[in-house]
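Journal club prep, shared notes

We agreed each person brings one worked example of a sequence with its structure written out as tokens. Mine is Olfactory receptor C family, h1. I'm keeping it raw so we can talk through how to read the token line rather than staring at a rendered picture. Sequence first:
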Amino acid sequence: MLIFGFLLLCSIKTKGETKVNCSMIGKPEYPLLSKDGDIIIGGAFSIHSKINLEMPSFTEKPHRLICTSLNLREFRFAQTMIFAIEEINSKASLLPNISIGYQIFDSCGSTLASMRSSMALMNGQELTAEHICSGKTAISHFATCACLSNRKQFPSFFRTIPSDFYQSRALAQLVKHFGWTWVGAVRSDNDYGNNGMATFVEVAEREGVCIEYSEAISRTNSKEKIAKVVEVIKKGTAKVLVAFLAQGEMDVLLEEIIGQNVTGLQWVGSESWITARYLATKFVSKVLGGAVGFTISKSKIPGLREFLLKVNPSQNPSNALLREFWEMAFGCHLFPTISSKTEHEKFCNGSENLTNVSNEFTDVSELRISNNVYKAIYAIAYALHNTLACKTSNESYALFVFLDSAECIKCPLEHWSNENHSMCVLKKVEFLSFEENMGILLTAFSLTGVSLTIAVALMFYHFIDTPLVKASNTELSFLLLFSLSLCFLCSLTFIGQPTEWSCMLRHTAFGITFALCMSCVLARTIAVVMAFKTTVPGTSVPQCTLPLQRISVFFCTFFQVIICTLWLVLAPPIPYKNITHSLDTIILECDLGSAIGFWAVLGYIGLLSVLCFILAFLARKLPDNFNEAKFITFSLLIFCAVWITFIPAYVSSPGKFTVAVEIFAILASSFGLLFCIFTPKCYIILLKPEQNTRKHIMGKTHNKSQ
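Then the structure, token by token:
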């Protein structure tokens, strides 16, 4: 419909808002119907269809506009808005704990009144014009002008009715369909009529339809101007009249058409008046009978009729609009009591029942525009609901801003809304890097472990001919030191951004190196037990045990290699972006691929360590000045304690701390093995060289054997 008429303009203001951007100078406009709330939705309707204009004196501020002639149809639209708001307020699922209020203004079907109502909706009733006007989002239920689709000019305008871009073309095709190639045209002299008719003429001429004349009128035109337009229509030879008119212009034109008794025309109407019930009378049918046009789709609104029938002056006795409506509906003068009646006038007291009244207000058989009002209110409610949810939700939603628009959207998976939810930004990427403090510290411990292991290996190599080193089984000692070096180094594969190769390497390298380490410890434990089972004191390890040690180390390690190979072939670990654990962070980690494979690797290492612990525990009391089984027992106690503690810590640790826990377990168990097994030997080699003799090492056993 019109840009400034029949428009539901929705101005959203928070309760108690005092900031004013601007308003029109002059007498303030006040809403005819209002209710307070946490959020206020404003509406402007042509509740009255006529306006009394006073010529300005230019010596004082303009007076308030005086509107007359109550339009029951528009009053129903306003009540439909109130019904929708009350219905939303009663719903716990929509805008919970938030009440919606309303301010309904009368645009009087006038551009001037519509503008004043709009200003009052946006900025209140304060009389100031010192600031720049701010835009508010408008949702129209009846504004069809195609010009409003221009997003550059009207960036914050939305509607629940189709644009005239489609209606104008459809009307041209309708005229062509019936073979009417010679037509007259009349339009409202405003953007609605001018834009709609311009499109119609353009398409009609392309379809081979000729326009005899095209006249423009306004509801505020003088009677003489309207009469001249009717004279053109009357003298024209075209028997088809396309009337792209707003309801107000249709009323004044129809009044003059009937007055001049212009009949015999085939009317083609726009959506604003073609379904108006008040025109479907016997008196008007002799002029408009057979009119065709396109209608707005109708619908049913459950509960609306019951709500309309409850409208009563008693709801707000001081409200002049409710009083005027009641007097018009019952053709009476409203008085507080029946005793005030006189003989010559009909009086009423508000106790009358609307159920028996049949007029445009109570007629809900074809809800077209009312349905658009209803949908517009719900559109606003859902938009507010989503906006508020956007600002309070912990999820990654952001509020984008494009008769100044906002849209709350969910950010892409790898994005997160900024602090004030105004835009989507890339989520922070988290992984254990070499540059951060934790990564640096763990790297330092890893390299320290490698350095100490290499130092021990060099010392053993330097003192390789001493009795203590020989008694420690040189081959297994170097192999164990080599495996410990790999254990320390494999922890470095867990640091840094996960890649396809690093994910596969970190777990398999860890599994194989620790299996090799435990295999060496197991072989050493067996060697210790066998060494002290020999009958002759001081006898070296039987030669047959050396191949057995090598074979046991090989097969124990090879079995772990098989497990890791199957894991990599069937379901290898892969890089994974974890976006579910934290809403504002992407955690880069390695997906295990197969949890069975991971726990099989870990379980096999556990099995080897348990076997080592049992054998070392049984051999802990073997006679010797240097009982290695005792130190192996201590090392395995530390090893088992670390990895038993690791399991719950690994499962419960978030993000990069999961990796840190795993690295800590690797380093702690590696240091435990290195210190417990090799520290006593290094102590004797470096600080107690007098004990590094065959006699001292085997002395206790020799004495007891004698």
